[in-house]
Amino acid sequence: ATTKSIEAGAAQIIQLDADIAKSESDAEVLGQEIDELEGKSAQAKSEAASAKALREKENGDYMAQHQDLSESVDACEKAVSVLKSKGADVPQSLAQVRSSPKIPAHAIEVIESFLAMNAGQEPKANAYEFQSGGVVEMLEKLTGKFNDQRLALQKAETNAKSNYEMLLQQLTDNIHTDESRSSEKSASKAGKLSDAANFKGDFEVTEKTKAEDEKTLSDTKASCNAKSVEFEQNQVTRAEEIKAIKKAMEILSSDAVSGNAETHLPSLAQVHAKGRALAQLRSSVQNDGDVRQKAAAYLQGRAKDLGSRYLSVMASRVTEDPFGKVKKMLKDLIVKLMEEANSEADHHAYCTSELATNKMTQEDKSSEAEKLSADADQLTATEAQLASEITELSDAMAELQGARAEATKNR
After folding, report:
1. Residue 272: strand, helix, or coil
2. Are 319 and 293 in contact (CB under 8 A)?
3. Contacts for 165 with CB less than 8 Å, ≥ 6 apart
4. What is the Cα–Cα distance from 75 to 94, expressed in whole angstroms?
5. Whose C-alpha in 4, 113, 186, 322 is 20 to 30 A from the C-alpha of 149?
6. 3-state class of 34 per DSSP?
7. At a CB cut-off of 8 Å and minimum separation 6, what does 209 contact?
């Protein structure tokens, strides 16, 4: 299970790393596009402001020129009317015409000449008609000219205003479009950055979990290996301890203990795993102090050689306790050693089983991946075949429809 979790974590880390890179790349591209759109929008706003300033200036010039032309037209028309009616305010009307900014120099000379000739005297009717006729004709021509100029100026103003409004509308539409797209891309960029942040969080969690799983697996393998080595070493030690105990039993049960008495020490009966035990020893009334000392010395020596605390404890008990307690102690010790040996064997078997299970799981997943890949290839081939059949059926249907149409036409 741990191995499977590590493999899944590694695959997820690769996917998350790719997702982070893609999200950040998309955000960077969107940022560049946003900058470009904002630049276009700023340029369009600048162009709109420039166009507005130019339009205002053009309109101001138009208003000034239109006013000058209108005043000139009005002055000329009034002067013509006064001259034709022979009114007393002819000099004043002509003076107003002369002061108009649009009046050309030769017209001003004609007017001044007319005024000088009639200054301070009442002209005769025939002479007045002759003199004023030329002035009237000139003023009428100027009036027509000024009207034509005013009409052309109005047309130019209308065209300039229309062009300005079209340009302003286009710039406004462009600004709106660019700002709208910029807002959409800004939201998309924020989403990509948020996705990247979420992927980074998942990446850190997954990487941490994978590291923990790898440490757990490493610790488990190390523990199993250590237990296996310890088990092998303890098996050797247990075997040596059992040999020492058997030897001590032989010393304690030898004929020297009984000294040819009627009661003899029994020999040690051995049985094998989960049934092995010491045969009960018969009571002895003989003095076995020397033999127990010899057995204790032997056990103490073996305990020192093997580093076995059990044999050391047994050696001290052999010299201190009665002989019956020694037998019970030996029996209990053998049982305890056998239990420890069985426990270590069970743990060793567990570790071996776990390692085998992990290996089988990995092999099953590899086999499953190969099978899925084969299924995918088969589905791809099937899809291609179905697409070909669909194309053939479509062609056949088209032919049938053509034939049907032809038959209908012939009928």
Report:
1. coil
2. yes
3. none
4. 8
5. 113
6. helix
7. 5, 9
